[in-house]
Amino acid sequence: MEQATLVRRAVKDPGVPLLRESMVPAPAPASDGGQSLPVNLTDDELQLLAEIATGVTTDVAARRLELSARTLRRRLRAICDQLGVNTPIEAVVWAARKQLI
What we know:
mainly alpha; 101 residues; 5 helices; Arc Repressor Mutant, subunit A; globular
């Protein structure tokens, strides 16, 4: 299945495991109406995740963002570490569930 389709399904139905058991859980409703984020991603990081969410390869995403493929992969790894997830697609699902992308 296409990566972008997986993300859409994961956002719509958080109860359905699509990738693995460690899939990012659906965000709990925040007590302040959803305004707080436990992790603050920069606009550049969100743009990178949005690009990956389209389903393009890292090489294509890197060209579109005017980065080297190695820099893009390094930044993706840093985002994953910051969010506590294992894969870039899990990071994309996290951002989509938080309605950041």
